[in-house]
Amino acid sequence: MGIVGNLNSNQLQFFNSEGYLVLESFASPDEIKSLRLKMEQLLDQFDCSSRASIFSTRNQQQTTDDYFFESAENISFFFEEKAFDDNGNLKQPKKLSINKVGHALHERDPIFKSFSSSEKFLSLLYSLGYRKPVVIQSMYIFKQPGIGGEVVPHQDNSFLYTNPPTCTGLWLALEDATITNGCLWAIPGSHKDGLVRRFIRDETGVHFDKPSPSYDQKDFVPIEVKAGSLVVIHGDLIHQSFENKSPTSRHAYSLHVVDTDGCKWADDNWIRRKVDPEPLYSS
Ligand SMILES: O=C(O)CCC(=O)C(=O)O
What we know:
Elements: H1 9-18, E1 20-23, H2 29-45, H3 60-63, H4 66-70, E2 75-79, E3 98-103, H5 105-108, H6 110-116, H7 119-127, E4 133-141, E5 151-154, E6 162-163, E7 168-173, E8 184-186, E9 199-202, E10 205-208, E11 221-223, E12 230-234, E13 239-241, E14 252-259, E15 264-265
């Protein structure tokens, strides 16, 4: 018999009603250690003297360049907006200056690849109704102490659109995520209102097709989780995270998955692959 879905009916019910689900102890302490160690090695090897690309969800149009587009199939490094002083020099060591590394760690690095294609992800995705899921992007997000940038309210289907929409976010806490160090926040049930807008790539660059609605911060709930917990995020769920002004980092590894069966990848998404991603499969 092939691999079966591992979510029970209570978990599925919670996910369908709230638009997210926390799976505690999804990753073992050893798995977390090896992902973090590998990232330390990648950071050591990264030579930041030649270029600096900044990641900002507030200024996404201005900070999107070829380096960003090519990151879809590479391991690319993006700085925190507040990493630099007025002269363009880093205010803190390199490893405390990076906002995120993306977007193909799951393909390009053997440690991240092996973890991202493990059967527990496939089983989870089968539970959610996926037929032929692919990881379409991965991000190691640092939420650095003191300067970790905010992620403004959004829906993941805006950025990784299929018709019909099939994106799910799989967000793994590599450190405890708290209100103080910038945990995720979401509007429970907001996925039921459908997709609000899309992030389009065309010959002029990238833009949203509609302005963002204004959200009432009172509607958001914090999703505080322990290291090792996986937060499963419906593609239409409105979620965000605030700046990290605390002295404690909040590392996370995030995968975004779409289906490749029964839906069509939109050609005007920001990700334009030269080589199609391989679907997850059971070994
Ligand atoms: O890690 C964060 O702060 C936000 C991540 C997020 O919103 C996402 O992965 O969709």
